[in-house]
Amino acid sequence: MRVSILGQEFHFENKESINMDIVEFIQGKIDNSNLLFSHLRIDGIEVFESFQAYLSSQSTVVNNIEVIMTSPNELVYETLTSAIQYIEGSLAEVKVLADSFYQSTSNNDIWGKLQYVVEGIQWFQETSSFIKQQKVRADIKDFASEFLDFSKEAKVLMEAVQQEDKILIGDILQYEIKPRFEEILRGLPDLVKNEVVS
Questions:
Q1: Ramachandran bin of 44, using left for φ above 0, alpha for ψ from -120 to 50, beta for the remaining angles
Q2: How many CA atoms lie within 13 A of 176 on its CB side?
Q3: What is the CA radius of gyration of the chain?
Q4: pLDDT-above-70 percentage for the chain
Q5: Which positions ≥6 away from 107 have C-beta within 8 Å?
Q6: Which residues pair with 162 in a beta bridge?
Q7: Domain boundaries, the chain
Q8: Which of 85, 88, 113, 164 is the most buried (most CB within 10 A)?
Q9: What fold is seen in the domain 73-193?
């Protein structure tokens, strides 16, 4: 098995039981690098999450693993670009979802869609924290602090969900989440046009 990481190639015995050793090897290389882990390409398949679980669950022998690393600034840029794409795809859905809660539509579909929005704002929370720790321009850090931090909205939304208050959920979506998404969409594309390095 061939493992490519940080411009180097390493060869391991090609058997299933070696996978946990490879996980530890990869993690060690990641930990000793100034770069951040992006994802793995395992026999041509892109694996972005839980590569440890993916490798340990493989019942077939893996031939090639390519470890994709990125600089913090590249990751910030990619993350902000993903944020724009997420909002562009979600903005109209948030409005429709708010209307569904106002109409007290009681089907499982609206709760599933709400979960998607909740996961999105949680991702924005993580993104905000990540960006604030990076060496990027001050205006990007300020934007992340001001617009990507949904902690207040997330707390109120979760309370409304626990109380099953559909009108309040609709209000939060319509008057807090949707306007914030619109503000992000107005300001973020101009920020990411330029380099993010401070």
A1: left
A2: 19
A3: 21
A4: 91
A5: none
A6: none
A7: 2-70, 73-193
A8: 113
A9: Four Helix Bundle (Hemerythrin (Met), subunit A) (1.20.120)
d(CA 165, CA 178): 18
Dump pLDDT digits (tens) for 44-102: 888 877 777 777 776 667 788 999 998 888 888 888 999 999 999 999 999 999 999 99
Tokens describing residue 132: 């604030």
Given this model, what pLDDT does residue 198 score? Answer: 44
The CA distance from 57 to 5, in Å, is: 21
CB distance 63 to 1 below 8 Å: yes
Tell me the C-alpha distance between 36 and 38, whole Å: 6
Q: Please provide residue 79's backbone torsions phi and psi, each rounded to the nearest 5 degrees.
A: -65, -45
CB–CB of 90/82 below 8 Å?
A: no
User: Cα–Cα distance between 140 and 57 in angstroms, integer?
Assistant: 39
- Strands 8-11 and 45-47, by their bridges, are unpaired
Over the range 105-126, which residues count as b (16 or more CB within 10 Å of their CB) and which as e?
eeeeebeebbeebbebbebbbe
